[in-house]
Amino acid sequence: MGLVVAFWILAVVAIIAALAVITLRNVFHAALALVSCFLMVAGLYITLSADFLAAVQILVYVGAISVIIILAIMMTRDVQRGSPANKLQFPAFLVVIVFLVVVVYAVMRTPWPVTGGAPLTPTTGPLALQLFGEGGYILPVEIAAVMILAAIIGAIVIAREK
Amino acid sequence: MSLGLEHYLILAGILFCIGLYGALTKRNAVIVLMCLELMLNAVNITMVAFSRFVVPELLTGQIFAIFIMVVAAAEVAVGLAIILAIYRGMTDIDVTKINLMKW
Question: What's the ipTM?
Answer without folding.
Answer: 0.90
